[in-house]
Design goal:
Length: 218
């Protein structure tokens, strides 16, 4: 593993923040993990969130985790067993669509960064009471986008957001300009048709575009 990727939740958080955008992908075939991840790295974006929405997810994480310099997370982690399996497969951060205290504890016990999804102030306060200060705002665009981020941020100065859901290259800059946003996530960087067609060059180009807007705003 690349020396620049250190373990520990706070270091991983720093690295996510420095990248600013996180491609969220769902793979049907785990052997797509290497060419996909390498196309992102070639494009300048060395991070990937692989969801557990398919049975290929864990093996895809395992394969991606072998690529030097790539920060690999697991997405759509919905129970503590999945969290443990994803961490065992090499995931360096765990993302959930919702807030399950068992998932949060499974990750905190191992000093693995966990970013659970929230969509209301009540859920945000529940995350804070579990000791978290970074949450995924999901589905961000449906919830009001940057207006919702600003509204929730005004309630608590410590909380930071990782908005995903409906974000595009055009919408991302408005989020990245907000001090409480650590990064945005989305499938637009590695769209499903491009993955299915093995169009790695397109994904490389989209990664370069994404890192360019993030780099300009960070
Ligand atoms: C996620 O799990 O974060 C979302 O599926 C990504 O949302 P998007 O496909 O709308 O970008």
């Amino acid at each position: 593993m690349d020396d620049s990727i250190l373990t520990g939740a706070s270091e991983v958080l720093r690295q996510i923040r420095s990248r600013g955008v996180v491609p969220v992908v769902t793979l049907a075939d785990p052997s797509d993990a290497e060419p996909l991840a390498k196309s992102l790295v070639r494009g300048g974006l060395s991070i990937i969130e692989i969801t557990l929405r398919t049975s290929a997810g864990l093996e895809a994480i395992q394969r991606a985790a072998r690529i030097d310099g790539l920060l690999v997370g697991a997405g759509t982690v919905t129970d503590a067993d999945q969290a443990a399996a994803a961490i065992g497969a090499g995931a360096q951060f765990i993302v959930s669509p919702g807030l399950d205290p068992a998932v949060v504890r499974a990750c905190l016990d191992k000093n693995i960064l966990v970013i659970p999804g929230i969509s209301t102030p009540t859920e945000m306060y529940a995350a804070l009471s579990l000791g978290l200060n970074v949450v995924k705002l999901f589905p961000a665009e449906l919830l009001g986008g940057t207006t919702m981020v600003k509204t929730l941020s005004a309630l608590d100065r410590e909380i930071s957001f990782f908005p995903t859901g409906g974000i595009t290259l055009e919408l991302a800059p408005a989020y990245l300009q907000l001090p409480s946003v650590i990064a945005v996530g989305g499938s637009w960087i590695a769209p499903q048709p491009a993955i299915d067609n093995g169009d790695w060059r397109r994904i490389e180009r989209l990664a370069t575009e994404a890192i360019a807007i993030s780099g300009a705003l960070r």
